[in-house]
Amino acid sequence: MVPYRDYPYQSVLAPYIRDYISEKRALGFIYNVKGYQMYRFDQYWTRNGFNDASLTSERLEEWICALPGESKSSQSSRIGAARGLAVYLNTLGIQCDVPLINVGKDHHKIHLLDKTEIHELFYAIDAYVPSSIARSDYRMADEYPIMFRLFYCCGMRNNEVCSLKTSDIDLEKGIITVYDGKNNKDRLVYLPEDLRILACRYFQSLTAVLGYEPYWFFPGRDPHNHVPKTTIDKKFHEFWHMTPSSRNCDKDPTPHSLRHGFVVDRINKWILEGVDMNVMFIYLSKYLGHTSPDESFYYYHLAKDAFRIVRMKDTMSCDVIPEVRRR
User: Is 73 inside a domain boundary?
Assistant: First the structure.
């Protein structure tokens, strides 16, 4: 269970914010990130000297504007916190304006690893030996090969892998149940047979080292807690910079790059096999936990082989767009 984080709200909004967050948590939401944004909003309310709980457009004007150097996702998170509180206050009979502005998303340049980079990366991961003598570091060194393969072979997200409970994975059938993923979606993830075998061997070794079956499938240094997402981000960066390819790379990949690789590889494979993409994109979208097939298709433009494959499979373009001949 992820521990709740509470903040010292002090403005006139404080009791409403506490009740709002309590209500959300009673419904099963963690609300730690939004709780922090509420804390920032609480400070904003105090700093401006607002002495009642009415959220008006004028009072929200400065809050919804982007801060210097702020990403769209961060700005959107702040606006979303104010929006949620405004809706809640309206249900209590406190008239508030609900900010409906949509600032869009950040589109970062993504490094899609090619086959050589993938080979080098997993060689570094599999050959890793900790520099410390701590038993927990050696135990966690056995976790990394499985975790990073779940990104690349199954398309899972970093936080989904880190927070896997032992009860969430059926090693005999090779099925992982992801509960409350992004967009509050539950879904099933199927392990390739070779990865299922590796996961079984890993878990047998883990239980032998700990002397009991852990609650978390990937326990952290303190085995009562799961591996933090930040640890995996840091280790990925470390492994990447062990590879020869990293020396000539101007944009470092991230663990999420492996998930992108899974999507692109799957799409390329289906096109080569002549599979009906209109049908398969619906399944792929559900498998990845996306809200729509369009969200899955976004990744395909990253593929270096995309146009080569389409051109190879295309039997009509030469008739529709004839070659230009020079005399």
Answer: yes
Grouping H, G, I as helix, E, B as strand and the rest as coil, residue 263 is helix
Whether residues 211 and 276 fall in one domain: no
pLDDT tens for 195-216 read 999 999 999 999 999 999 999 9
Structure tokens at 123: 């060689």
DSSP secondary structure letter of residue 291: S
Cβ proximity of 218 and 143 under 8 Å: yes
CA angle 300/259/173 to nearest 5° reads 120
Chain length of the chain: 327
Cα–Cα distance, 1 to 165 (Å, whole number): 10
Containing structural domain, residue 299 = 256-317
CA–CA gap between residue 188 and residue 175 (Å, rounded) = 7
Do 157 and 226 reside in the same domain of the chain? yes
Whether the model clears a pTM of 0.85, i.e. scores above it, the answer is no
41 and 146 inside one domain: no
